[in-house]
Amino acid sequence: MGILELYIKGGEFMHPILFCLILGLGFIVERFISLTKSSTNIRKFMVTFNQTLKDQGLDAAIEFCQNTKGSASSVILAGLGKVKYGVRHVETAIENAASVEMAFLEKGLIYLNTVIALAPMLGFTGTVWGMIGAFDAIAAAGDVSPSLVADGISQALITTLGGLVVAMIVQLFTNYFIARVSTLIVEMEESSVEAVDALIDQGIVKLD
Description:
mainly alpha, 208 residues, single chain, rod-shaped
């Protein structure tokens, strides 16, 4: 039996399950694009940043961060804007910017988790609804026909299958995104510490 045949045989509960799949895939594509834009080669970035700061000064380092896409450059840029106020203000600005970046990176994951939870529940509901219909058909026929029972139960279980398949697909991508976000957060923290140390070493920022 093909996918289209299963979908048709599954009944009306297959429609919201399909909607969950489309919704999940939409957020998956959005997360891929957003996380790709937020990613950068952190080692290469920090080497260039440190060299620029050392050779050309603060203004050149700020311009470099402005022209570099990624979460790490955005966080460090926020700190560079507070160097005249001292290291404590730099660290506070970096922490605030990191919180905003973390919220941006994690945005959309709640919707994926909703799809993961909702799709199987719709499938189970469709199965219960189908079983009710199967027993009603048995009662109307007044006879427990093996073919009648088998066909009704088969149709009822298709919605459970559909819901579980959708949940598994979305769960795989969600796990990947969670791991990617965790990596980006660690990179932001490491690069921020390194940037503050570089500012202190170059005497650009004052110790409080």
